From TrEMBL:
Belongs to the Maf family. YhdE subfamily. GO terms for cellular component: cytoplasm. Pfam families: Maf. NCBIfam families: maf. This is dTTP/UTP pyrophosphatase. It catalyses: dTTP + H2O = dTMP + diphosphate + H(+); UTP + H2O = UMP + diphosphate + H(+). Nucleoside triphosphate pyrophosphatase that hydrolyzes dTTP and UTP. May have a dual role in cell division arrest and in preventing the incorporation of modified nucleotides into cellular nucleic acids.
Length: 190
């Protein structure tokens, strides 16, 4: 049976894989510059990073490498991974009362070195947010370290009025597409 290398330090991606019965044989943190390129669109950014992360990790004989990236986009603008509460606030102020795209890309390199990838678009709509709701979310601390400054799987779910697309993709890994790519790469799935 081929081993699976998860090219990610995200505990959410590991947990999501567990939901479909996939346990990586090893986890390797890819060293990739995640800064957007000048003029890069959110969909292109997510796919470029997923591929770069998969390619950045050493692959042993017969190992399959899996990597992903999630990017929140407001129009053509790429929202950052919020590293401070101030950035979380800026993201929520921008996203409140509007729809935005979440691009979740996955890349798989099979045992022969062949790369396959998919990019999934989901649309998320926040309710109009007042300052008290933003402050309460900031106090939770959930948004720090998250793309776009929120985690849909946490208390931000109560602020989202609609969503279409891949819920698991918004969390961090589109499971339907991931499973299909792993199966095509020769990874045994039930």
């Amino acid at each position: 049976m081929p081993g699976l290398v998860l090219a990610s330090s995200s505990p959410r991606r590991r947990d999501l894989l567990g939901q479909i019965g996939v346990i990586p044989s090893r986890i390797a943190e890819p060293l990739v510059d995640e800064a957007p390129l000048k003029g890069e669109l959110p969909r292109d950014h997510a796919l470029r990073l997923a591929v770069a992360k998969a390619q950045a990790v050493a692959r042993g004989p017969d190992e399959i490498v899996l990597a992903g990236d999630t990017c929140v986009g407001a129009g053509r603008r790429i929202l950052p991974k919020a590293d401070t509460p101030d950035v979380v606030r800026q993201c929520l102020e921008l996203l409140g009362g509007r729809r935005h795209d979440v691009w979740s890309a996955v890349a798989v390199i099979d045992g022969s070195g062949r790369l396959r990838s998919r990019n999934v678009r989901s649309v998320v709509a926040f309710k109009q947010l007042d300052s008290a709701e933003i402050e309460a979310y900031l106090e939770s601390g959930e948004g720090v370290g998250k793309a776009g400054g929120y985690a849909i799987q946490g208390s931000a779910a109560a602020l989202i009025r609609a969503m279409s697309g891949s819920y698991s993709g918004v969390v961090g890994l589109p499971l339907f597409e991931t499973r299909a790519l792993l199966r095509t790469a020769g990874y045994p799935l039930g």
